[in-house]
C-alpha cells in the first residue's frame, strides 16, 4: 500500500482587499492541476474575505492561510487576528441580500468545515477530497 504524501504550506498576508487575489494566485501555484483547485480557491476566497471584512485582520492586521494537501485531499485553515463581534457562523440571509453567503458556500462545497480559537482570533477550516 502506498501512503499519500501530505504537503504543508503557509501564506501570511496583510489584511487588505488585495489579499484575496494574492491568496488565489498563491494557491493556484501551489496546487497546480489538483482536482479540488476550483472548489478550494472558492472556499479560501470566502474565508479570506470574511477575515479582512469582519476582524482586526482588515484593520492593519494579517491573515494566515495554512494548507495541507495530497493528490486527492485539501485541508485549509484561514486564521484571523480576532476582534470580530461574533464567532464565525452560518448566517441567515434573505433571498435578495448581497452579503452573508460565504460560510454557506463553504458548507456546501467542502466535505467538512468548522471554527476554532487560534490565539486572539479564529481559525476557520475546511477539508475536501476530489478524485482526479
Question: In words, what does this structure look like?
Answer:
The chain has 132 residues and is of the alpha+beta class. It has one domain: Heat Shock Protein 90 (2-Layer Sandwich). It is 30% helix and 30% strand. The chain has three helices and five strands; from the N terminus they run βααββαββ. The chain has helices at 19-31, 37-54, 102-109, and strands at residues 7-14, 62-69, 73-79, 112-118, 121-129. The radius of gyration is 15 Å and the shape is globular. The mean pLDDT is 90.
Gyration radius over CA: 15 Å
The domain tally reads 1
Shape: globular
CATH superfamily: Histidine kinase-like ATPase, C-terminal domain
Q: SSE string, helix = H, strand = E?
A: EHHEEHEE
By CATH reckoning, the class would read: Alpha Beta
Share in β-strands: 25-35%
Helix content, binned percent = 25-40%
Main β-sheet, spatial strand arrangement:
1-2-3-5-4
**Total helical segments:** 3
**What is the CATH topology assignment?**
Heat Shock Protein 90
- Biggest sheet, in brief? 5 strands, antiparallel
The chain-level structural class is alpha+beta
In the CATH hierarchy, what is the architecture at level 2? 2-Layer Sandwich
